[in-house]
Amino acid sequence: MAACVVLLLAGATVCVALSEAGAGSLWRHAYHAPVVLAALRWGMGGVLAALAAVLLYSPFVLPALERQGPSPAVLEGLVTLALVLGVGVSSGALAAGFRRERARHDTLVAVQRAVDGETPLELTLVRLRACLEARLGGAVGLAVRDGERVALAGAAVLAPGSPAVRVLATGAPLYIADLGGGGRPRRAFVAPLVGRGGTTGALVLERRDDVGPGERRALLALAAHVGLALENARLAARQRRFAEELAEKVTAATRHVVEMDRLKSDFVAIASHELRTPLTALQGFSELLATRRFAPSELARVGAIMNAETERLGRIVADFLDLARLERGLAPPLRRMRVDAGAVVSEAVEVLRRARTTHALEFFCQAPLPAIEADPDALDRVVKNLIGNAVKYSPIGSCVRVAARPQSAPPGVEITVEDEGPGIAEADLARVFEPYFRTAGGARVAVGAGLGLAVVKSLVDAHGGSIHAQNVAPHGTRMTLILPALP
Amino acid sequence: MRALEHAYTPSRAGLFDATPVPALAALAAAWSLAALILPAPAARGIGLAAAHGGLLGTALAWTAAERPRERWAPLAAALLLGAATLSARLLPLGALAYLAVPAWLLWRHHGWWGNGLRHVTATLAGALFGLLLGLHLLVNAALTLGFHVRPPRAADFVAWFAYDLGANVLAAEMFFRAGLFVRAHRRWSFTAAAALSTAASVARYLVDPLLPHTAEILAGATFYLGLLGAGNCWLLARHGSLGGPLAAGLIFFAAYRLLAR
Q1: What is the ipTM of this complex?
Q2: pTM for the predicted model, two decimal places
Q3: Which of A146, A165, A233, B110 has a 20 to 30 A CA-CA distance from B83?
């Protein structure tokens, strides 16, 4: 194209030179062609072509002006000089303006594409920077706030006191005519990226060429667009993440509801079974009492059995009531008083030792134990429940060890119940205190509603204590209960 | 990127900071004294050396502001130029002594001239620009003002070339482009900086006593020196080498020396 412009200029000059009319030759109008061509191709390059045309044509006009004065031919030549210059400037400006607008539109579209899609912020910034560098004719950098940190593109670090940091702090654009550093002047324009929460980042353009006021205004508009595009991309990503999290939560909740439903069904079946056993016994013995006559000694034995079954029925109903309170978020009612934990545990062990003959029960107490404030009935119930569980899930003939020790930090009493059973799967250790939960192994070994440990935990929590389960080597489970001492 | 990775402190320096005022005042005083007490040719020689030395020395002081010894560079440059002027007056081919000035500058600041391909490209571009402008001057002056192209004697041409290279073009390009334009360009846009530099360089030639002060010559000088100045500013800004402006100026003035009534 450059060669074409040069050839057209040279051709017009040769034609004017060869023409007999000289400055007034019609060929003078041919200078417009390369001028318009250059303007269309290079924008303001049309001005240079116009200057070249003026330089080439003026040697025909000015001597004629010297010789002939302001003759019609000379005036035509002067008008042509002015026209060529005017056409060069106006067509160059128009073409440059059109090219600028097109470039801006293309840049906005490219920016939108660069920030589109689900990519991490750093990668988005790298893409955005590459896109802008290709269009802005200089080095481009981006600094975008991402929570507490600032994500960067085009630099490894963000120096305190740098122009970008100033713009991030003030939100005002900054133009620097020379960044320093020696050599030719290096311009920099830093435009704030504006989001909903104010200044969210900075767009930096560095180059050797000028960044004029018009271009700075365009860059401000571009930065505003980039800021909004980044904000929208971030909001869209957040929306997607939120939807995903919501879906996950709904799935988990549904799974939980299904699981609870299953557990409750199991519970109803087990509870019916649990209630039916003592009821059947009571029904059978009451029928016997109604239809037969018993010797006084037999009568006493039947009465004892019926009493034991009634107590069992009472315990089950108490567990149900406690569970109901637990599910309503209410603490179990306690009658708290100063209690010697060693005595309560010792008595519970002694009662169970007398009642159970299938397992050996050992008790160890490291005296003196600090006094605690507790409901003695609740504590008795907790200890008996733990021992009952240990007995239920460990083989006949094995030993259940119960111990009570003082604890120094924080001051309290530690009560442990350890069995020689198969232990609990690691994944289930944290869940054994959930209502209705029963381990797979436990469900096979013994019948139960899965309420005992849940009630135990609620009682311990009500006392301000803690309880946890752990497996012990070589096999077995240890339940550790800690109750705070009185100050 | 500097705007991200380096702290920025705005420069408080003014456009004319580090101007060697005492040295320039001394040169002005010497020139005035010479004009008062010496015969006109001698005073003109001293004036020439003082003017070019002042431009060169000021450019040296501006471009090496951190080196205090450059404050007296105008005097050193003027002395060197004075010696070269004396040599040119007294000896055949004595004008070659002007070549000592660029050698002296190269010795002091070899970094100014650029290096590598960029420098070669800049010099070639400048040479082409100077050639086109010079040719246009020759054609236009011949057609319009009745000048003739008359090749001078080789000795005269060499003397003029040495004078342009060592004093006229060198001092102008050093001061108006490497000094004034670069300083202004660090503060303002290219257009503003080039306008200031070009206007100042045109003014320098218009007050030059060696230029015939007729209307058409002044108009032509303004036109061509304006174009030369603006083009040289663009060459310097584009390539970062003074080779382009120097080559353009040398070739343009060589063409100018070919003109004769």
Answers
A1: 0.81
A2: 0.65
A3: B110
